[in-house]
From TrEMBL:
Belongs to the RecO family. Involved in DNA repair and RecF pathway recombination. InterPro entries: ARFGAP/RecO, DNA_rep/recomb_RecO_N, NA-bd_OB-fold, RecO, RecO_C. The lineage of its organism: Bacteria, Bacillati, Actinomycetota, Actinomycetes, Kitasatosporales. The keyword Disulfide bond does not apply. Residues 1-68 form the DNA replication/recombination mediator RecO N-terminal domain. It comes from Streptomyces bugieae. This is DNA repair protein RecO.
Length: 248
């Protein structure tokens, strides 16, 4: 029987019995963790209010074995709020739908419980913080998060050099299956010809050039979002349910 302490983002919750919940978190040190929080659905429980989606919390776990993630679910015995990002997200539809898609993406990219995913964790913390503060348009924050999540998981798209032969850009064709922009010689069936502005926007979002991203026109942002969604779905092999509700 062991105690563990970690900080994490609450990804989702599920009802368990009459008063309990199963809490899914993405933690700094242990990756994705599911734990039981007892009594948190009672109206007088202050503990439960801290364990809602979008919350950044410091959590103590109680596990029966020597490992946090084992044959049974650990218990979440204490939690302290580090940042309640939900307050700046759930009251705005665009932020809420973008944030929900970010939580689902983080969960999908951390398939194996108990395996540290520090870069994904830090991306999620930074993305939710930016979203809650309203510093940039929610759909731009979401697309930046999706592109960077793909990158840290080994699927970074190319927006300049040809993804197949390496020919320096700009290259005018884009192929999801090929890994980004491709030249005319490497063009494959199913390639599209996006606008240079949309490609420039996605490159800016991937590299953190927010001056360029914030100045983009809405039509180019919609075009870029379509490319990001197609690229993400290709690598996840099935779509994100939450993306259908995101406002473009």
């Amino acid at each position: 029987m062991s105690l563990f302490r970690d900080d994490g983002i609450v990804l989702r919750t599920q009802k368990l019995g009459e008063a309990d919940r199963i809490i899914t978190l993405l933690t700094r040190g242990h990756g994705r963790v599911r734990a039981v929080a007892r009594g948190v659905r009672r109206t007088k429980s202050k503990f439960g209010a801290r364990l809602e989606p979008f919350s950044h919390v410091d959590v103590q776990f109680y596990a029966r074995g020597s490992e946090l993630v084992g044959r049974g679910l650990p218990l979440c015995t204490q939690s302290e709020t580090i940042a309640a990002y939900g307050g700046g997200i759930v009251t705005d539809y665009a932020r809420y739908t973008a944030g929900t898609a970010m939580l689902e993406t983080a969960e999908r990219f951390t398939d194996h419980e108990g395996e540290p995913a520090v870069q994904q964790y830090l991306l999620l913390v930074g993305g939710l913080r930016t979203l809650a503060r309203g510093e940039h348009a929610p759909h731009l924050v979401l697309d930046a998060f999706l592109l960077r999540s793909l990158a840290v998981n080994g699927y970074a798209p190319s927006f300049d050099s040809c993804a197949r032969c390496g020919m320096p850009g700009p290259n005018r064709f884009f192929s999801v299956a090929s890994g980004g922009v491709i030249c005319g010689e490497c063009r494959v069936p199913g390639s599209v010809v996006p606008s240079s502005e949309a490609i420039g926007l996605l490159s800016a979002l991937l590299t953190g050039d927010w001056d360029t991203a914030d100045a983009c026109e809405a039509r180019h942002a919609r075009e870029g979002s379509g490319l990001v969604t197609a690229y993400l779905h290709w690598h996840l092999e099935r779509g994100l349910r939450s993306l259908r509700y995101v406002e473009q």
